[in-house]
Amino acid sequence: MFPHHCRLLRSISVRLVRDNPRCGLSLCSVLCDERSIIIIQSWRERQWRHQRPNLAAAFFADNRPMGHSKVEKAESHERIVKVAAGVFRELGINGISLADLMQCAGLTHGGFYRHFGSRDDLVAEAVERALKDGSAVADSIAANPRSTIGAVVDAYLSLAHRENVASGCAVTALANDVARSTDRARSAYSLQVRRYVDLIMRLIEHMPLKKRRSVALAALATLVGAVSMARAVNDDTLSREILKSAADDLKARLA
Question: Which of 28, 123, 199, 244 is paired with 112 by a 20 to 30 Å CA distance?
Answer without folding.
Answer: 28
